[in-house]
Amino acid sequence: MTAGAEMKGYEELAPPASMADAVDAFWRYSAPPRDAGTGPEFHRILPDGCTDLIFHFRGTGGPVWMADPSLEVVGPMERFALITIEPGSVSLGIRFKPGWALALLGVSPRELRGLSVPVADCSPALTLLQRRLEDCRSPVEAHALLQKSVARRLASFREAPRPRATQALRWLQSSGGQVRMSALARTLGVSERTLHRDVLDEAGVPPKLLARVLRFQRAVALLRSGGGEDLSAVALACGYADQAHLSREVRDLAGLSPTALQLEG
């Protein structure tokens, strides 16, 4: 779930090198406090193929520093979503790369696709983590606990063999989604049907959809880079047939034209 740099109050931290193969980023979003006459804000969240673990609370500014805490898992998205942000709310998140949610969270991204689910409906281990987060004395301590929890799970998981889909997911991500499924299946020595099933089980979305989202994410990054790339150059760099193809994909996945997406960023 990629919020985008356009969100004021959004901060993103790269994971330590020891987590970089599994974690895309740690992030925090602090919504502005409520002013007289203001209500909830709305933000556009773009699909990125990832699964997020998010700790929400309302900042109080007092000795009891948070209220209304909750921990939830947000599964991979197929297209954009407009979400409501309550004034004064804070979110601490971990964005897991495709293929790691099942291993590190114990939840199936396939079952969570397009959903935001409280951890009480996911696993006892995550419910216990929420209780520990609620006992933290500050947002900094809560962030540290999230990071330690992931590091501990990752360390124990490294001893187990990775599923067959790992190589396929790495190929999809390293190519920015610019790979044909028939060629990928042939390279891996499996059928396209097996490739589809393996990636769907591990990433929560079929390989063709994941490739589409990864191409889109690369296009978004170029559109918002400030480098002045024109749409035809972005289309060429990201593997689209032409500028019209890029425009159709951006409209479908982001709900905006490429130009409007640039302005929003």
Structural key phrases:
265 residues, alpha+beta, 11 helices, globular
Structural shape: globular
| Mean pLDDT reading | 90
In terms of DSSP E residues, the strand content is 15-25%
Order of helices and strands: EEEEEEEHHEHHHHHHHHH
Biggest sheet, open or closed, and with what strands and sense?
6 strands, antiparallel
Low-confidence stretches: none
Helix content: 40-55%
For the secondary structure, the number of strands is 8
**End-to-end CA span:** 16 Å
Structural class: alpha+beta
Kindly report the spatial arrangement of strands forming the biggest sheet. Answer: 1-2-7-4-5-8
**Rg:** 19 Å
Tally of individual helices? 11
Structure description:
The protein is of the alpha+beta class. It has eleven helices and eight strands. The protein has helices spanning 101-105, 109-112, 124-134, 139-157, 165-174, 181-188, 192-203, 207-223, 231-237, 243-254, 258-264, and strands at 10-13, 23-30, 41-45, 51-59, 66-74, 81-85, 89-96, 116-118. The strands form two sheets. It has a six-stranded antiparallel beta sheet with strand order 1-2-7-4-5-8, with helices on one face. The protein has a two-stranded antiparallel ribbon with strand order 3-6. Helix 3 (124-134) packs antiparallel against helix 4 (139-157), helix 5 (165-174) packs across helix 7 and helix 8 (207-223) packs across helix 10 (243-254). The longest helix is centred in the middle third of the chain and has 19 residues, at 139-157.
